[in-house]
TrEMBL record:
It comes from the Bacteria. One of its GO terms (molecular function) is DNA binding. This is Helix-turn-helix domain. InterPro entries: Cro/C1-type_HTH, Lambda_DNA-bd_dom_sf. Pfam families: HTH_31. Residues 44-89 form the HTH cro/C1-type domain.
Length: 283
């Protein structure tokens, strides 16, 4: 007898607006999304797996917390497979699709999410560690880093400097700009964040970590003394922009993941990097 694959059950019209579902989507907690979805639709893991084009074992592992979804492709398969509005998990609409209606004050037109916006993370700490490693590892010709301290990178990845040295030796052009710890701008920023000289101290620690890069081929390590409005991390055609908020450390502020498209936000932030880089001095 030939088995017939049952289609997914009809989801309630308000499923994606339910408070528990909205919270799970905001956290990109696909395990919780699957649990809530199955609770309200009665769908089996096998039906979800078929709709999302992933193995049933993966659906089980995701739902039970043994597997985390980090791949953009898998997020897209899941969203399209079970009908999650893409905007709810920070994905760009499919080309040619009709965007989900957005509510707002009467008379104010709804803003479209730029197609180059891959995702918005609520804080830098919410950016998966694997994403940082993947972006650094897969860059083939250009890496730009503009930060005040950025201590989390060498402090959180034991092989960070070794990875950069290998990339530089392979022909990747790496430009790395840190805040000058002796600059009054950095001192002011430390005071505004409530940590005083702690910010300059973090920059000095980062410089100690990166000391081995000073004479490495392909790597240009410099210092800037600018008022930094965003930290910028560019990896070929991908960019992470860590916004800065007065009185808060960068780690607590949102991060935009952008993918290059001509004339868009990516170019806007890339131009900002170039303006700061033009003011830098050797570290």
């Amino acid at each position: 007898m030939v088995s017939v694959r049952r289609p997914l059950p009809q989801a309630p019209a308000d499923l994606w607006d339910r408070p528990d579902m909205s919270e799970a989507l905001a956290r990109r907690d696909i395990g919780a999304v699957f649990k809530i979805y199955r609770q309200w639709t009665g769908a089996t893991q096998t039906q979800i797996a078929a709709a999302c084009e992933v193995p049933q074992s993966h659906v089980s592992e995701i739902q039970n917390g043994r597997r985390q979804v980090t791949s953009l492709e898998i997020f897209e398969r899941i969203a399209d497979g079970i009908g999650i509005p893409r905007v709810r998990i920070g994905l760009a609409d499919k080309p040619g699709s009709v965007p989900e209606p957005r509510t707002g004050p009467p008379g104010v037109p709804a803003a479209e999410i730029p197609a180059e916006m891959v995702r918005v993370y609520p804080s830098r700490t919410a950016v998966p560690g694997d994403l940082w490693r993947t972006l650094f590892a897969e860059a083939t010709h250009q890496v730009d880093v503009l930060v005040i301290a950025g201590l989390f990178l060498p402090d959180g990845h034991a092989d960070f400097t070794a990875v950069l040295r290998r990339k530089g030796a392979s022909g990747v052009k790496i430009r790395y700009a840190l805040g000058n710890p002796e600059s009054p701008v950095i001192a002011l920023r430390g005071d505004e964040e409530g940590i005083g000289d702690g910010l300059a101290a973090r920059t000095r620690i980062t410089l100690t970590y990166l000391a081995a890069l000073r004479d490495a081929p392909g790597i240009d390590l410099r210092l800037h003394s600018t008022t930094l409005y965003n930290s910028i991390y560019r990896f070929d055609g991908d960019m992470l922009v860590n916004t800065h908020v007065y009185g808060a450390p960068a780690a607590h502020s949102p991060v935009l993941h952008l993918r290059e498209q001509p004339g868009g936000l990516f170019d806007h932030y890339a131009a900002s990097f170039e303006r700061v880089w033009a003011t830098t001095e050797g570290a």
